[in-house]
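Supplementary Note 3. Input sequence used for the single-chain structure prediction.
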Amino acid sequence: MSVKYGILALLYQQKTHGYELKLELEAFLGIKGKINPGQIYTTVDRLIRDQLVSSVGTDDQERKLYEITGEGRRELEKWLLEPIPHYSTKDDFHFKWSCARKIGYGKERQMLDQQKAIIMKDVMDLTKLKTEFLIQGDEHRYLLITGSLLRLEADLHWIHQIENRSQ
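The predicted structure, written as discrete structure tokens, is reproduced below.
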């Protein structure tokens, strides 16, 4: 995830302060984790330096407000239209498994079983969250979780293919 473009997307709709940017970015991430506030302010400083964001005073609580510039809008729109290539050979487990095959590591089956177990745990956790988001009417998070589940399903399918070819 690019904090830079997340900030630009949030500022695209309205000006806001750094702490609000942090909270909104964490909402974008869903279950993936927290963002360090320092990362927000460092990124905002770079965006100001690059003239993609400007500081426009303070709010009623004396917090610095930021807004996207015209150049920032163009940069965000350009980024949004760039497709994201999928390099499956750069996937961490695929790389680790390829290394194990290269050296003739005798515990490939254990590696696959452990990977399947962690994927299944993630599937169960995400399925529970997906249901909660559906009940809450949180369409954004529901769709993000659905995408994550589909990717996990593809990973499981890949492992099953390896297992079937190894028999």
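The mean pLDDT is 86. Residues 4 and 42 are 10 Å apart (CA to CA).
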